[in-house]
Amino acid sequence: MDYQINPAAYASMFAVPRAVVEDSLLLASPTALKALLLMLCRGEALSAAEIAQALKRDEADVADALVFWQQQGILLPADGAAPAPAPVKPAPAAPKEPPQPKRTAPELPISRPTHEQIAIRLQECEAFRDLFQEAQQKLGKTIGYEGQSILIMLHDTYDLPVEVILMLLEYAKSRGKTGYKYIASIGREWSEKEIDSLESAEAYIREQDTTDALWAQFRDLTGAKNRNPTAKQKRYLTMWSRDLGFSGEMIALAYEICIDNTNNLSLEYMDRVLQSWQKSGVRTPADADRAQQQWNEKRFARKGKPAAKPSKPESVYSSDASYDLEAFSKHVIGMEDFVPKN
Question: What is the domain extent for residue 18?
């Protein structure tokens, strides 16, 4: 069902700065949004105590929320004090050379070599005779005219050496896909990624195996229905495991934190958590527990309350935490003093 604004509601309005929606809507906590809407509606300076009383929220949370809006440039102190310094923007980087265009490989042409041309290639090149023979063994079926044509074009059109083509066939067989259309699509992908040696092919296959294993764990954890990951899911899983070096256990923990705090699966939210862990040295679930405890103690100390562990402590990653989440992603709020154990 779609919704629209009731025209009668426009009888009484107040203005909201466009920057609140365009720049800060995803970063602001519920407390911060409520506090700002109250101030905009009242149209006058309000203290944290007044806002906390009106919203029935903790005064320390409201104070944090007002600091957030001050950092965003939306609020200014009413007592004439200097505004909070704006985040320092890095100097523009020196102009870089334009990126090289992505290598693209054409689809295999519809026009295929004739039987006579294939026969001539077999007579002239012993490597092709060996390729056809080993291909039949790897795929477990006779290589007829269609298969012979595809294998020759993988070599001629995509510049794949014979030994790489054989490894490609092993990879396709391990995926349970031995159709020539699939084999041709993998050949095109390898050509575009310049996988033209045994070393690069082995590295690619290892990466795919790792991603497949992570996806199997992730699918079981999340209940995802698709057998294979989407391009976006694959990109994130590859980055988390290969670039950030996280295990499936830590990726699963990031997923649990995401669900606890958003009630939805958000790859972007999980990425924010894992990126913060990588920057702060959190590598194990024990590290994450210690970082959370340190953040809880720090938060209660700021409020002047005992550091007793509450029944359900607010998470450092909570969407209701009154902190600038942009700063969180850069400086890992609550973890800046965290020192992992060796």
Answer: 13-71
